[in-house]
Every structure is written in structure tokens, then in C-alpha cells.
């Protein structure tokens, strides 16, 4: 595609952003639909200056990643109510210099899960108490699921559990866990420590669906053991994919080419091996 003065700009801001898979995914989608737009990585250490640049340059939409998901909120004109509950924004829409913040991380998680199970009335156990656990937790509540939170650090875990109005269990007592869906929202099992797993096979056997937000490797030990035990499994690439799908559809108003975006992610991950 030729870039011209009419080409619309999208991108991702964070520090660092060179490792991001989002440009490959979004540029593949834009090209597939013949949209005159490009998605670029913008390293940004000064978030206030970056937001001024968004308005000044007319960038139409941005993904937001670490470390700016929380700090960017105060710089925007309006923030979606669910993003306010989550306390983080990962998506910005620029409508005639009015900047709106949203969070599609929860949409990515719930849409990936809904491919395998009806979340309304389901009981989900979330492992972890960080930003991902928070977004997924509020997303599950939006979909009518109930939650149990399980984490290693009691103070942090109980604090998030109080916000989610759900029970908290120590990871040391994970053998007590039961439910329909188990979600690993920690980094346990990520490259290079691929033989680590947050819970045992005996725990995963108590669930119908097991999801891991880790996508390198795409099939973690947790997922391998869950699959061997007969569970449906969802890898971290699906959450990344579907949060991007939601962003694309918000920005363009068009149905995202999901298969094209998934293929682009798989290919870029394969090149990183």
C-alpha cells in the first residue's frame, strides 16, 4: 500500500514498544480490507507529551501499553465506564481532537472464552492479582460470571478480591479450587521458564475450560496438562488477538478480518523463535 497525505495514522504508545506484536496484526487487517491507513509503534516515555502529539498530529486511534495504561487516563477527555472500573485504558479513539479512553483487554479475554463456554452463570477462577487479572475479572462480571481470585500475595489478592466482591484463596490452597473456567493471569510458564506451572494437573482437572494469558510459548505446561486431562484450552494469543479485534472494529467501524489477524500473529511469533 502506498502511504500518502490521506493515509490515516494508528499506532501503539508505550515504553518499550519494539517488541509489540500489534503492528503486524493491525497492518495485516488494514491491508486485507484495503483501508488507507497504517499502524506504527511510537516509543513514549513522556505520556503527557505523547497525548499532546496525538491531538496535534491527528492520530485517529492508539493502543496503550506499559507503563502508561493508568497514567494516561487523567489526560483524556472521557473514559469509558468499564475502563474506569478496571482503572486502566489500553485504547484511545480520537474524534475531532476529543480523546476517549477504553479498555479492550477484558473484551479480548471474554470473547476468547465465549468461543468455548457461555460465561453467563459460569464460575471462573482467576490466578493472579495484577493488571491482567483485574481487567479479566471486571470483564467476567460484565458477562454475568462469578469469580474466585487465587494469588500468592495475600494483601494484594484480598484488595482486588474486595473490589471484585469475590472470595480470595491463597495459591498454597489451590487444591481447593473448583469451577467451570480456570484462567492463569500471571506470567508463570512464560519463556524461558516454560516448565513452570501455577497449579497442578489435579487442579486443572476440576475445570471445563483452561485459559492462559501467556503466549510465548503458545501452549504452556499448564495448557498441555489441561488438554491431556480433557479440558478445552485457550492460549494467550487468543486474548491478544481479540483485544486487537475489538480495537480495530472501534477505530474503523468495520468487521475485523479475524483469521488474517491471527495468521499475522502466529507468523511474527514464529519468526521470533
From TrEMBL:
Domain of life, source organism: Bacteria
Keywords: Amino-acid biosynthesis, Aromatic amino acid biosynthesis, NADP, Oxidoreductase
InterPro entries in the record: Aminoacid_DH-like_N_sf (IPR046346), NAD(P)-bd_dom_sf (IPR036291), SDH_C (IPR041121), Shikimate_DH (IPR011342), Shikimate_DH-bd_N (IPR013708), Shikimate_DH_fam (IPR022893)
Location of the active site: 69 (proton acceptor)
GO terms, molecular function: NADP binding; shikimate 3-dehydrogenase (NADP+) activity
Catalytic activity reported: shikimate + NADP(+) = 3-dehydroshikimate + NADPH + H(+)
Domain SDH C-terminal: 236-265
Residue sites binding NADP(+) per the record: 128-132, 213, 236
One Pfam family of this chain: SDH_C
Functional pathway: Metabolic intermediate biosynthesis; chorismate biosynthesis; chorismate from D-erythrose 4-phosphate and phosphoenolpyruvate: step 4/7
Binding-site residues for shikimate, renumbered to this chain: 20-22, 65, 90, 105, 215, 243
Domain Shikimate dehydrogenase substrate binding N-terminal, residue spans: 12-92
Alphabetized SUPFAM superfamilies for the sequence: Aminoacid dehydrogenase-like, N-terminal domain, NAD(P)-binding Rossmann-fold domains
EC number(s) given by UniProt: 1.1.1.25
Any one biological process term the GO annotation gives: shikimate metabolic process
The protein's role, per its UniProt record: Involved in the biosynthesis of the chorismate, which leads to the biosynthesis of aromatic amino acids. Catalyzes the reversible NADPH linked reduction of 3-dehydroshikimate (DHSA) to yield shikimate (SA).
PANTHER family: BIFUNCTIONAL 3-DEHYDROQUINATE DEHYDRATASE_SHIKIMATE DEHYDROGENASE, CHLOROPLASTIC, SHIKIMATE DEHYDROGENASE
Family statement: Belongs to the shikimate dehydrogenase family.
Matches recorded under HAMAP family: Shikimate_DH_AroE (MF_00222)
Assembly mode: Homodimer.
Protein name per UniProt: Shikimate dehydrogenase (NADP(+))
Organism, as annotated: Desulfocapsa sulfexigens (strain DSM 10523 / SB164P1)
Gene name linked to the record: aroE
